[in-house]
Design brief:
Distance between the termini: 70 Å
Strand order of the largest sheet: 1-2
Helix content: 40-55%
Order of helices and strands: HHEHHEHEHHEHHHHHHEEH
Structural class: mainly alpha
Number of helices: 14
Radius of gyration: 29 Å
Length: 342
């Protein structure tokens, strides 16, 4: 709307009110009534074009009232593109404010701590956000998203998409925007927790944190588990972490189907039973507590731990103690059906 048109419209409105049209003006701003309408406003749409769409969608009553109200509020050039859920049971002023403030449809999603890229990819596809191929192009291979705080040669972004709850505008839910947001969250939340180090050591820190994330069930055990792994690394003892085997070969062990000897002896650079040191990259997305534990592992002379079936672990200093812990856990397992546990 030009300035001259605005002045003429304002003059017409003043004249109408002067002739006793206040009630008619109020009626034109009143709710239309009906169900919520989802409407996408394209970038570059002018206020009049938006008003026409709102009238056609039966969200407001009058294009002239729309134009006059925007003029009075000074919102003609402040309307924002996006997808809106507009409620016709609200009046024109509320509708105009919603579009002027950009209160678009929001999508909320949560990525749990300990998820890997495969789990994320399936989740996004199941939510119909985008296809898995779009996600994988951005997180793996030579064309993956690059950020200055990660080494360019890192093969994939495993471990660096921060697990958290996100809220994005519906129109922003693309693979690129989601990956960018998760990397930005990692940079903002996780990087300040990192121990002073070179960039390459950053990958080692997150890799250790990802193993702690997958091993620890009880929160208070995280620093001790990190300490055990750190001690083994210092002594050049293989970590022997089951989650690295599961990640390497796409396995999921259960109490009734633990990993087999053949599986744990099968070679993979991620299998910490056969490779000394850390895997080449993280195996999952660690949360804040695991990142903190890996940055400041508890000093301990424990070198082993054995998982009980309640989520806690038995920690041991020697291999003999560790074998005894295994026997204790096996005995507990045999007793579980008799006490009514799964």
């Amino acid at each position: 709307m030009s300035r001259l048109q605005g002045i003429l419209l304002a003059g017409l409105l003043i004249l109408t009110l002067g002739l006793g049209g206040w009630s008619a003006w109020q009626q034109s701003l009143a709710p239309v009534g009906g169900s919520v309408v989802r409407l996408k406003i394209q970038p570059g749409s002018g206020s009049s074009a938006i008003g026409d769409e709102l009238v056609q969608a039966k969200v407001i009553r009058s294009i002239w009232s729309w134009r006059a109200y925007l003029l009075l509020k000074g919102w003609q050039n402040q309307l924002q593109a996006g997808t809106y859920d507009l409620d016709p049971s609200q009046g024109l002023p509320q509708i105009a404010e919603q579009v002027a403030r950009g209160r678009v449809v929001q999508v909320r999603f949560t990525i749990p701590e300990g998820w890997n890229l495969k789990q994320m990819s399936r989740y996004f596809a199941q939510q119909q956000f985008f296809v898995e191929a779009d996600f994988w192009r951005l997180v793996k291979g030579k064309d993956r998203v690059q950020v200055p705080w990660l080494p360019a040669e890192l093969p994939l972004l495993e471990g660096f998409l921060y697990p958290d709850t996100y809220q994005l505008a519906l129109d922003q839910v693309t693979a690129r925007h989601v990956v960018d947001q998760m990397l930005e969250r990692f940079e903002r939340v996780a990087l300040p927790l990192a121990p002073p180090s070179q960039t390459q050591a950053l990958v080692a820190w997150v890799t250790l944190a990802s193993i702690v994330e997958r091993e620890a069930v009880v929160p208070q055990e995280r620093p001790l588990i990190a300490g055990v792994f750190w001690s083994r690394l210092q002594k050049k003892i293989p970590l022997g972490a089951d989650p690295t085997v599961e990640y390497a070969f796409g396995l999921q062990q259960t109490p009734d189907r633990p990993l087999t000897f053949k599986q744990v002896r099968q070679y993979s650079p991620y299998n910490t039973y056969v490779v000394t040191g850390l895997p080449p990259a993280p195996i999952a997305a660690p949360g804040k507590a695991s990142l903190e534990s890996a940055a400041r592992p508890l000093e301990t002379d424990y070198l082993y731990f054995m998982a009980r079936y309640d989520g806690t672990h038995i920690f041991s200093r020697t291999e003999q103690e560790h074998e005894q812990a295994k026997q204790i856990v096996r005995k507990q397992r045999r007793q579980l059906p008799r006490i009514g546990l799964p």
